[in-house]
Amino acid sequence: MSYILKGETGDWEVVIGLEVHAQVISKAKLFSGASADFGAGPNEHVSFIDAGMPGMLPVINERCVEQAVRTGLGLKAQINKRSVFARKNYFYADLPQGYQISQYDQPIVGEGTLVLDLADGSTRAIGIERLHLEQDAGKSIHDMHGTKSFIDLNRAGVALMEIVSKPDLRSPEEVGAYLKKMRSILRYLGTCDGNMEEGSMRCDANVSVRPVGATELRTRCEIKNVNSVRFVMQAVEYEARRHVDVYESGGKIDQETRLYDSNKGETRTMRSKEMAHDYRYFPDPDLQPLEFDDAFVESIRKTLPELPDDKKARFISAYGLSAYDADVLVSERENGEFFEVVAKGRDAKQAANWVNTNLFAVLNKKGLSIAESPVSAANLGRLLDLIADNTISGRQAKELFEAMVETGKDADVLVSELGLKQMTDTSAIEAAVDQVLAANTEKVEQFRAGKEQVLGWFVGQVMKATQGKANPATCSDLLRKKLAS
Amino acid sequence: MSLDKATVRRIATLARIEVPDADLGTVAEQLSGIMGWIEQLKEVNTDNVAPMSGGTDLKLPWRKDEVTDGDKVDQVLANAPDGHDGFFTVPKVVE
User: Fold this and answer.
1) Is A92 in Cβ contact with B63 (below 8 Å)?
2) Is A278 within 8 Å of B14 (Cβ atoms)?
3) pLDDT, tens only, A321-351
4) Helix (H) or strand (E) holding A211
5) Using CA atoms, how far apart are residues A161 and A171, in angstroms rounded to an integer?
6) Is A386 helix (H, G, I), strand (E, B) or coil?
């Protein structure tokens, strides 16, 4: 199902590589002891190192190193036991050092893989080029004063992982799937909270197009800092179309940085060419190479959780779930844990169905996370038990579930409160059946004359007579028996 | 290696140093002289020698992930010429 752009001169394909900037979860910053927490007053989480004061020396935070290695292992990537920090020089108000400490030709993590789960149930492996550690910049605020920009350095120096994909992505859909999967993996690992709206995960997209069948890469444009998965997808779609239009009208694409304007749905040039950056990378003389041994890597590997791909494979093989159901359940670690409590010792497909359909519909409607679910996993499991032992019918189960959502009470309590118990006393149902048959001799004749569908009508009547408490299957059996005699 | 005026102008821009056009020739000559000294290092054979990261055997020290610094807005802003409400300020920069 390839994504092709139709043009006047032929078909084009789009080539996309993504750079994800993921804020590392740690207490302190990458090279200073100031807090990495979000939300303090201006410049409260700033040390002299973060403020770029002369004579201050950076000292690396071990937790940030562990988190980078952990993420690398989660991406099945090469871990480099020796890496080098370099200075990336540029001049901007929220970068007080005048350079960002980053990694250049010797990053901490090398090539890895991320598997996309696509909407049609298929998967595709995308190459990871590298992951490196670097400092985040501060924040410029432009709307507090007529002629001045205000600078808050709380974010300056917080650790970022820049994760670069190979140019393997071929459609906006794959871009969306990549970002969702990346977020899912980072959250499972606990290395980044993955919140794009709050900026703890940011994305730049490198986009180019080429005629279908061509193998060379054409000039790419980089679209910076788009703050939601949907907007990245839209930006890529727009940018690819723009390239095709430029080429087909005989123009050429300049390599440049562009911004996505989500209001207008278009990208535009961000920096003029004469300002083109020349970062003059060189190894940071304040920092020796970052080195660790195999034991360090192995100690981190031992603490890795079961990751989404493995969990998905297990859900499919152990529980017999469809790829789609498994994808939904493993996208967040908490969803999978909830499901497994519900499914334990029960019909797993039915459990997946209740969690994915009924429960998620309610949570989405109420804007709640699964941790805030009004129905606990144990309680939803109880509901399934009540269906399984014929205490309640499928229809009653829906009614019970709604009551559980509204009241948060236990399934068993609500069954007796609402009088939902299904009639198991066959003689009571039989009495109702006799009554219905006696009152509708005409219909009985119709059935005996071969009009099978009348049976459904009879079941409905018996259900009505028993206030919905009779088991429909039992009703149907009894009716058939009586009508046949 | 000899630097021309255009290159010197570019380096000056990147370094945020103002060099009047009249001085570009002199600066180019001086910088080219420095480059000449550095070029002498190329005479040393460094085949099969890994690049050094410094002149010592020091290992990179690591710190624990603990908050030990910050909460000193007044000191951080002490030298700022135009602080406002805990912020640094600069002439408006909007892309």
Assistant:
1) no
2) yes
3) 999 999 999 999 999 999 999 999 999 999 9
4) strand A201-211
5) 24
6) helix
The C-alpha atoms of residue A79 and residue A71 are separated, in whole angstroms, by 10
DSSP A15: E
CB A285 within 8 Å of CB A84? no
Task: Work out the minimum CA distance from A415 to partner chain B, whole angstroms.
Answer: 52
Q: How far is B12 from chain A, CA to nearest CA, in Å?
A: 12
Integer angstrom CA distances of residue B12 from B6, B19, B24: 10, 7, 10
* B93/A150 Cβ within 8 A: no
ipTM confidence = 0.90
A46 contacts in chain B (CB < 8 Å): 70, 72-73, 76
112-131 of A, contacting B, C-beta below 8 A: none
Whether A36 and A45 have beta carbons less than 8 Å apart is answered as: yes
CA distance A338 to A329: 9
Answer for the pair A384, A358: CB distance below 8 angstroms, yes or no.
Answer: no
Strand ranges (E), A80-200: 82-83, 85-89, 99-103, 112-117, 123-135, 139-141, 148-152, 159-165
pLDDT of residue A184: 96
Q: Which of A44, A61, A93 sits opposite B65 (nearest CB)?
A: A61
Average pLDDT across chain A, whole number = 91
Residue A57 touches partner B, C-beta closer than 8 Å: no
| Long-range contacts (CB closer than 8 Å, 24 or more residues apart) made by A96-100 | A96/A50, A96/A51, A96/A52, A96/A138, A96/A153, A96/A156, A97/A52, A98/A52, A100/A134, A100/A135, A100/A137
Which residues in chain A have their CB less than 8 angstroms from residue B63's CB?
28, 33, 59-62
What's the CA gap between A208 and A215, in Å, rounded? 12
Taking an 8 Å cut-off on Cβ atoms, the answer to whether B86 and A271 are in contact is no
pLDDT band at A272 (very low <50, low <70, confident <90, very high): low
Alpha-carbon distance B50 to nearest alpha carbon in chain A (angstroms): 13
Instruction: Say if the Cβ atoms of A148 and B88 lie within 8 Å.
Output: no
Residues forming a β-bridge with A5: A12
CA torsion angle A352 A356 A358 A362 (round to 10):
140
pTM of the predicted structure, to 2 decimals: 0.86
Q: B68 CB near a chain A CB, below 8 Å?
A: yes
Max Cα-Cα span within chain A: 101
> What are the sequence ranges of the domains in chain A?
4-300, 308-418, 426-484
Q: Which residue of A has its CA nearest to B83?
A: A150
Does residue A130 sit in helix, strand or coil?
A: strand
The CATH class for the domain spanning A426-484 reads mainly alpha
